[in-house]
Amino acid sequence: MQQANMTDTEHLLLGSLLCKPEGIHSVSDIILPEHFISRRTKEAYRIARDLAAQGTLDVVTFARAFLSEEGDLWPPDDVAGLVERYNSAGYVPIESLAEEVRLSSIKRNAHDIGAKIQHEKDPAVLRELNKELGNALDATHGKPFEFTWKTGKDFIKYLEHGQGRPSGIMTGFPVLDEMTSGFGPGEMCVVGAASKTGKTTWALDVAWNVSSIYPVAFISVEMDKQQLYDKLYGMVSGVQSDKFRRGTVGDNDWPLLLSALERIGNRRLILDFHSRDIDSLILRYRRLASEHGVKLVVVDYCQRVKVPHEKGQSREREVATIAQAIKNVALDTRVPVILLSQISRAGESEDEPSKRHLRESGVLDQEADQIVMMWRGTKDEGGAWLKVDGNRPTGRTGKFHLDFNCTADSYKPYPLMAHTAPAGEAEEVGEEDERIPF
Asked: Would you identify the CATH topology of the domain 168-428?
C-alpha cells in the first residue's frame, strides 16, 4: 500500500514537470533519478530532466522520447494521464512532492541496509554496512548550495545592522568578553576546572546574567533539582544557601528571598535536570532552541553525560562522541554552548592548569572554539583565576582574576544592558517578559 502511495506521488511530480517545466530547477537539487521507486519513474524523471535542460520539455516531446528510447515502457496515453492526474489533484507544491520522494528513498535504503546489519556477523562487513547506513541517512544530500553573490549582500546588511553591537553573547565578565568578543552562533566554549573549584557557580552566574537579555538553558548533569535551586536562590537573594539546608533562615532573610522569587520569576532561565544521556540531551537542546527560543546553553558537565557503551570502547572515545554531538547540535541550531569539563589529577596539582590538563584534552581541544581554564586563587588572593587558553575565533588569550562574594555565592559579573545583546535581538526581550516554563 505504501509503495502504491509513493508511486502516486512520483506520478504527480512528473505531471507537474510536464505542466510547469521550469519546476525542474526547484527539484533538481532535491532529488536524483535513483530516488524514484521503479525503473519506469526513474527513467521518466531522467528524460524529463534532460529535456528541461534543453528547453524542450512538454507532453509531446516527452512521449516521443519514450517511444524512441524505451519502446512501450511509457505509452503516450499514460504520459497524457500524468498531466490529467496533476491537474485533478489541484495545486501541490512541486518542492514538497520532491521532498517526499527523497525521504521515502532514504527510508527504503536505510531499511534494506538495516536488515543486512541484523544478520551480518563479520566485523569488517558490519563496518562497511554502518558506513553505507550513514550515507543513506545523509539528510543533506542534494540540498541547494549557498551562492556567494547572494550571501555577500546579506553579509553587508548584517554588518550595517549590527554596527555598534556585538555579534556574540556577552557574559558580563569584561576581560573575558573582550578576549572572546562574545560567544558566536554555533560556538562551543569548554571551561575546564578541578572539582570544587567553583565552575558550576561561575557558569550559573553567566546563565543568570545572560537571562536578563534573552532565554538561557542550564542543563545540569551533576546536581539534582534541589541543589541547583538552593544555589540559584542563594545567589540571587544574597542569603547563604547553607541556611536552606540547615533550616536556619532568619526573619531578616525572608524579605530578601521574596524579592529574589520575583526577580527569578521575571527571568527567562530554564533549568533542566533530566538530560543525563547524550541522546536525551541533544533532543532537549533542539527543543529548547526551536520551542523556547533559547540563545545560550550551559552543560554541567561533560564527563557526567552518559553514552551507549560498546565493548572495548575507551573513555576518550566516549567523550569524543559527547563533544562532537554537542558541537554539531550547536552548529545546527546556531545556539552557542558552554560545556564544563573536569581536568586530570595532574592538572589539579598544578598552580596554573592548562588545556592539556583537560580530561581527554585532545578531543575537547579539537572541537572547542574557546577553551577557558579555571582555578582557585591563593589564600591571600581569594576568588578564582580564569585563563583563555584557546580562542579560535579571535586568537586572543590571557588570564584574569575574579573576586568572589561568599555571602551571595557568586563571582558577581557586571549586569548586561540592552546594548550588549546581539544585533536585532535586544528589542525582542526584556525584564518584563513572561518567564518560560519547562
From this structure: Rossmann fold (3.40.50)
